[in-house]
From TrEMBL:
Domain AB hydrolase-1: 3-219
UniProt-recorded Gene Ontology molecular function terms: catalytic activity
This protein's name: Esterase
InterPro entries documented for this protein: AB_hydrolase_1, AB_hydrolase_fold
Organism whose genome encodes this protein: Promicromonospora citrea
Amino acid sequence: MDILLIGGLWLDASAWDLVVPELEALGHRPVPVALPGQGDGDTSATLADQAAAVVAAVDAAAGRPLVVGHSAASTLAWLAADARPEAVAGVVLVGGFPWDDGRPYADLFEITDGVMPFPGWEPFDGPDIADLDAATREAVAAAAVPVPEGVARGVVRLTDERRFDVPVTVVCPEFTPAQARAWIDAGDVPELARAKHLDLVDLDSGHWPMFSAPAALARLLAALSA
């Protein structure tokens, strides 16, 4: 099966380099999605541009792909389900949740000169980064790509209620499935509250398992693809 891999904020497609060979060894075709504005130097890119890139990857896939979104890119994966509900086998959300219609995509940190730079590790101190050693933190920070303002402040637009028929799995790394369920039940994630086929699965890692637990993440994705 084709497994589309969408990195979260500040990550380019190389973020999946450790996961790709693991998935290939398990018999799948991983496809890291290159997002406009995250690796190509295009600071004018918008959320619509990134969503279009993900949809294009769905259209180019062999058969119905599994669409994996990490962190904020959980929303991008969900936008793909909204745009191509009949063409997506399922959506996997790694350490993140999809925003609902009308919400800004990721207006989380200060915008400087038209981009949202990586803020350093201090805002993520705790379970998010507990499993990242110093060398990995340094490497990830050095490779971090500032997110264009048009992406970070882009407004989420969802139009097709058939997205709720697409199977969704939330992979819970730095939080537990019980916590995720409580947030959904409390109304914090209205999109997932309406999903007809929702699973919550645990992964023993921090927020960036593609760096700290690539083999375990690949095994989980392979299992979900079945």
